[in-house]
Amino acid sequence: MSRIGRLPVEIPKGVEVEIKGSSLRVKGPKGEMQRTFDNRMAISVDEGAIVVQRSSEERTQRALHGMTRALIHNMIVGVHTGFEKVLEVNGVGYRAEMNGANLVLNVGYSHPVIMEPPKGIHFETDAKTRQIKVLGHDKELVGQVAANIRKVRPPEPYKGKGIKYLEETLRRKAGKAGKV
């Protein structure tokens, strides 16, 4: 039995869950999500919790069991509290600012880079701490948008200039002649 897969997913107050066959729709204060899962996984609501069960002990079904439960948990957490990724801008003259809903990055190019948020995502910036927050209810989409922002100017290993995740640690290299 999968240790993750056998855990029930608690449904918090204010979250509505609707199951139609292998499709699951979750609605909460932060938004609404819908996803279709593999037919081999049995998804049911039992006493205020979602339970995922598998029909056999095949290797693929064992793998799908834990993944299905984790995806459902991310959907519930997303529509109830939401997800956020924090990025940090390092470098002289590098900055991030908001222009309406769009994120404007000035990171050493001859032009500012303008990023439009996809549906369900919004940005927040803080000029003092030089941080960018990517907020949304879909964990996968929040992570992908944050990765796209980081890809605009990844941190370089010598001075650390660029855009990095807040919790990311950089491997720094010694410069010319081993200066520190």
Tell me what you see in this structure.
The chain is α+β, with helices and mostly antiparallel strands and 180 residues long. It folds into two domains: 9-80, Ribosomal protein L6 (Outer Surface Protein A, domain 3, Alpha-Beta Complex), CATH 3.90.930; 83-167, Ribosomal protein L6 (Outer Surface Protein A, domain 3, Alpha-Beta Complex). The chain has helices spanning 59-80, 139-152; strands at 9-10, 16-20, 23-28, 31-36, 41-45, 49-54, 83-90, 95-99, 102-106, 113-115, 121-126, 131-136, 162-165. The strands form four sheets. A four-stranded antiparallel beta sheet has the order 11-12-7-13, with helices on one face. Strands 1-6-5 form a three-stranded antiparallel beta sheet, with helices on one face. Strands 2-3-4 form a three-stranded antiparallel beta sheet, covered by helices on one side. It is elongated, with a radius of gyration of 21 Å. 22% of the residues are buried.
